[in-house]
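Workshop exercise sheet. Pairs work together: one partner reads the sequence aloud, the other fills in the structure field after running the prediction. Swap roles for the next sheet.
Pair: D.N. / O.F.
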Amino acid sequence: MEYTYLGRIGLRVSRLCLGTVNFGRHVSEEDTYPVLSHALQAGINFFDTANSYNEGLTETIIGNWLAQDKSRRGRIVLATKVYSTTGEGPNDGRLSAYHIRRACEDSLRRLQTDHIDLYQMHHIDRRTPWEEIWQAMEQLVREGKISYVGSSNFAAWHIARAQGIATQRNFLGLVSEQSVYNLRSRKIEMEVLPCCRELGLAVIPYSPMGGGLLCGVLDNPTTGRRGRESLRETIATHLSHLEAYEALCASVGESPANVALAWVLSNPDITVPIIGPRTVEQLDENLSVLELKLDDEVLAKLDEIWEGPGGEAPEAYAW
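Structure field:
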């Protein structure tokens, strides 16, 4: 397994992060245990979840797995998130200090641990002032309940604003940003990636295979996840791109899913992509991509098929 630093901080994480959004929804609790254990055995030490995944069930599953062997907790970097509505009360969501404190306690209980390594804000809260958010996060750090703070789905100016206020407070602030990023969704190349590079934030892309779109959907688009109506509509919209993409993958002798993940890994601004295997076999397939290096010719052809936003701002839209 390869390891890298999580942005500017001294924490090292595996080059693949195990995402768990499918656990408890598409994968039963019993079937998640082999995937979690195999990931740890293979050297993956970065596990990502959220308090909103399957109404907290995913955190509970991970907590039950950790409880099976107490040594596991000290071998992983555990990340979860806060923001989403978790109840019916007026303060059961977003990023007020009130909700952050309660949500953290709830996540710790479900995860059966005394601390969260990376506590990520799942979305920007335009209503709550940063002074309130950072005060709450600072308190959790002082209490030893969290070690680092990250963001997710933030715009570049949100990151810059948050970091500026954290610096004024002599607080470490954000250490990572988790954004959607894949061959089809490349908007973060314009501003988020340059911002994270400048400020030293790790970039943790989710959905590197485009929600299944980049996994070879033209072979059998009517079964399983590929049969979802929304995905069928997306396939129709991007049919010419997909035909060219899957033909290119066939020409280099690699599966579309592997090429999609390898492309994300090839970007030096990307720290660690999140994978979402449902089985040990899918996990092994993901792990094999660490040995796959796409040459410059293939990367250039991928850029032709799936055009990005035109580079970084402002050059992407101005002279």
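Discussion prompt: The mean pLDDT is 96. What would you look at next?
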